[in-house]
Automatic annotation (TrEMBL):
It comes from Pseudofulvibacter geojedonensis. This is Metallophosphoesterase. Gene3D superfamilies: 3.60.21.10. Residues 4-140 form the Calcineurin-like phosphoesterase domain. The lineage of its organism: Bacteria, Pseudomonadati, Bacteroidota, Flavobacteriia, Flavobacteriales. InterPro entries: Calcineurin-like_PHP, Metallo-depent_PP-like.
Amino acid sequence: MQNIYFTSDHHFGHTNILKYSNRPFKSAEEMDEELIKRWNSKVQPNDIVYHLGDVAMTKNPEGIGDILNRLNGKIYLIKGNHEHSALKHKGRFEWIKDYHELKVKDEEAPNGSQKIILLHYAMKVWRSSFRGTWHLYGHSHGSLPDDPNSLSFDVGVDCHDYYPISYEEVKAIMKQKTWTPPFENRN
């Protein structure tokens, strides 16, 4: 069975991200190896990964191909603001988009599927947000406070111990939210 994962903001090869995001690695090379290890510890070769942008940022875009080829899974890329290196390796991605509306079959969701809006950037509102559609984003590296009344959150590696998170993990987080439909009690 294919599992679905979400992640963002690896910044493979980016030395300055160590200080910008206070990452606990001594070098970009050490960071890259640990990110690959953590990715592959969860993601199997046939699993699906939605990467919400900023895969890599390096002066050597060709070297990123080696990293991408070491990552398990079928990777779908939502473009971030630092994709120069990743876009040199378009063939590694199942598709590349700016935005995507995903539907995941889920018996517990309304009508048997959960709709999820995928974008690199956080939004306050999104298509069908008032109907329980989720929104996953990256970009902020954990700098935005989570809103318990909003069905959205940052899936970036800085927020999840440098691991991708599964659909089931996302679902568990969403179940803890206090969101209620805004028009539920209107007459």
